[in-house]
Amino acid sequence: MLKILSGKDNLDPNQFFQRSDTTHLRGHSCKLSVNRCRLQLRQNFFSQRVIKDWNKLPQDVVDQCTSVNSFKNRLDTHWKNTGYGH
Questions:
Q1: Residue 22's pLDDT band (boundaries 50, 70, 90)?
Q2: Residue pair 53/66 in contact by the 8 Å Cβ criterion
Q3: Model-level pTM?
Q4: Under a CB-based contact definition with an 8 Å cutoff, are residues 51 and 4 in contact?
């Protein structure tokens, strides 16, 4: 997600995701909006499955990441502190 949204991959993020207009509410500044899916198949696409989890991340994990490795380290720390996967 971070690589697609930050332009580190050769993919256009606008083809997969739409930035949310409600970034002032909670969370981080890179929130994405969830598009409604007409077909069940579309709900299983990567670009639809990850939005909910991405939007739940706190601001200190997503913002100010200078590299993918720094993002991974912050994400691992966040998951360790919240007990994710246990």
A1: low
A2: no
A3: 0.69
A4: no
User: Residue 25 — pLDDT band, cuts 50, 70, 90?
Assistant: low
Cα-Cα-Cα-Cα dihedral sign, residues 7, 45, 33, 57: negative
Separation CA 72–CA 79 (nearest Å): 10
Q: What is the total count of domains within the chain?
A: 1
Domain that holds residue 58: 2-82
In 1-86 the beta strands, taken as DSSP E runs, fall at none
Rounded to whole angstroms, the Cα distance separating 83 from 86 reads 6
pLDDT tens per residue, range 37-86: 676 776 778 878 888 888 888 888 887 778 889 999 999 998 898 887 65
User: How many whole angstroms separate alpha carbon 44 and alpha carbon 10?
Assistant: 23
**H/E run at residue 82:** helix 68-82
